[in-house]
């Protein structure tokens, strides 16, 4: 099957004949297990950071500090598109169970690490498992529910991520300082191991519930062949090119944005150029593959393309602000780290409220474009006001501006995914959901790189190493951060434009990607 083939099958929101219908306790158990799996991924991104100083104190290796995070991100991102496609071909259950098991194994081993290199290796293993979960949790919600009901349930995703963002850092710090002692396994100086061990009881509950209650034939598989014949249909070359291109591109972006190497250095240029070339080869391969990892015809669907762009932009905005707003609050307004954290808490709360509320509203209205446009406009207004902030801006106003961004940004945690799932035939549920998750993760890296480059271009002298103490230094830092916030504003304006193309498709109606999602 070429990717130019017309997609004319049933919409993802239509009921599938013969598909097992979960009800009652079985449905509640599966939903709980899926949310626990999501919680594992969300918490892991927040609890580990606050424990890292304690980890470094015992394992040493400060020069490899960033690789604890980078290795995890690289591994998870390479898995998302591959597993999304394979789950469409062969079913979801065993990929999700396998991913959760790998994540738990990585957590157990990370907790036993004796060296920094061991910790990095086990974090990579965790990332492989997390990437499989990222690809599949939202997809299985698409299998379980029709579009309107799915929107209501997926709004809970915002609560899970919001709770993780609000309480994860504090939980990580508490575990690193107060985790219980376990003989020689966890000692006074290694209580930090609990930031990894805490995953085990949560994950085991999820695995048990999924193993018992999640049907293996819940999704409509596109692969009807069995045995070796089915293996031969796997797009191995596409998977390898996708993974290596992602790794090279992310390494180049990470090295450049973190100032580990200059953007003009051979290391950064090689990573970026090789990544771009490999992505080009990947697209060429996908255009000819019988069962491509990423069917390029998906991008002929106007709604899917708009949703993909919004997924990228939302994370570019969020990560660009998350990285540099604390610096503005502390370096320009002169408040303490604790006060800065408290000032940013309303932003997270607003994201939870808007993400949850918008999902429920989409489920009721069965429309999403107007919600997306309003959210993008509110987000853009907040970004504009943040650009206008200076050393004379009050903390109250700064918090209000951040809340506006949170209200707009939170909507795009699940809305693009819901729109994409509704716009495409059911057999592309896995690959389309995985694509939006993958692009969101890529957007986070791009946002950090672009905003970081804009800020660093205007920073020099003592500001490279220390926060300013005088008004002149605060003015210079404010100007540098303003350049970064201007980049964020540009992303928000593009997001407003993208929502214009996020056309409403009535829930439950078939959609054909080769006609740009038009009706």
From TrEMBL:
SUPFAM superfamilies: MFS general substrate transporter. Pfam families: MFS_1. Residues 30-507 form the Major facilitator superfamily (MFS) profile domain. PROSITE patterns: MFS, SUGAR_TRANSPORT_1. It comes from the Bacteria. It is a multi-pass membrane protein. This is MFS transporter.
């Amino acid at each position: 099957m070429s990717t130019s083939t017309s997609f004319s099958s049933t919409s993802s929101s239509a009921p599938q004949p013969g598909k097992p219908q979960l009800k009652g306790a079985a449905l509640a158990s599966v939903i709980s297990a899926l949310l626990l799996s999501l919680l594992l991924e969300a918490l892991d991104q927040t609890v580990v950071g606050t424990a890292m100083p304690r980890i470094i104190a015992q394992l040493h290796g400060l020069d490899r500090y960033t690789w604890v995070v980078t290795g995890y991100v690289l591994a998870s991102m390479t898995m998302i598109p591959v597993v999304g496609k394979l789950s469409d071909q062969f079913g979801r259950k065993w990929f999700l169970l396998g991913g959760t098991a790998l994540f738990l194994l990585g957590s157990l081993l990370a907790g036993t690490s004796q060296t920094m290199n061991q910790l990095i290796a086990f974090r990579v293993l965790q990332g492989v498992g997390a990437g499989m979960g990222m690809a599949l949790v939202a997809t299985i919600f698409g299998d379980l529910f029709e579009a309107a009901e799915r929107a209501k349930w997926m709004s809970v995703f915002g609560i899970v991520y919001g709770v993780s963002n609000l309480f994860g850092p504090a939980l990580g710090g508490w575990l690193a300082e107060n985790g219980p002692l376990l003989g020689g396994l966890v000692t006074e100086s290694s209580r930090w191991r609990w930031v990894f061990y805490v995953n085990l009881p949560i994950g085991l509950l999820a695995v048990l519930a999924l193993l018992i209650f999640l049907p293996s034939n819940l999704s409509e598989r596109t692969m009807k062949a069995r045995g070796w014949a089915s293996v031969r249909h796997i797009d191995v070359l596409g998977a390898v090119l996708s993974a290596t291109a992602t790794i090279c591109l992310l390494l180049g972006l990470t090295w450049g944005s973190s100032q580990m190497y200059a953007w003009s250095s051979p290391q950064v240029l090689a990573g970026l150029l090789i990544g771009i070339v490999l992505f080009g080869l990947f697209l060429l391969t996908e255009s000819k593959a019988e069962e491509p990892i990423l069917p390029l015809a998906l991008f002929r669907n106007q709604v899917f393309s708009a949703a993909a762009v919004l997924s990228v932009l939302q994370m570019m905005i969020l990560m660009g602000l998350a990285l540099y707003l604390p610096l503005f609050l502390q370096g320009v307004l002169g408040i303490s780290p604790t006060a800065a954290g408290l000032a940013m808490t309303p932003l997270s709360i607003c994201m939870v409220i808007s993400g949850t509320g918008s999902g429920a509203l989409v489920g009721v209205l069965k429309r999403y474009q107007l919600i997306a446009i309003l959210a993008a406009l509110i987000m853009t207004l907040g970004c504009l006001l943040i650009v206008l902030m200076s050393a004379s801006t009050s903390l109250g106003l700064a918090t209000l501006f951040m809340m506006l961004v949170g209200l707009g940004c939170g909507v795009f945690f699940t809305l693009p995914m819901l729109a994409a799932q509704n716009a495409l035939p059911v057999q592309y549920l896995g690959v389309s959901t995985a694509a939006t998750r993958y692009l969101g993760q890529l957007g986070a890296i791009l946002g950090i790189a672009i905003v970081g480059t804009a800020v660093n271009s205007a920073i020099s002298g003592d500001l490279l190493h220390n926060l300013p103490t005088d008004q002149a230094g605060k003015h210079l830092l404010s100007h540098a951060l303003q350049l970064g916030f201007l980049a964020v504003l540009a992303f928000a304006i593009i997001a407003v434009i993208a929502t214009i193309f996020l056309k409403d498709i009535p829930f439950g109606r078939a959609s054909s990607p080769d006609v740009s999602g038009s009706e």
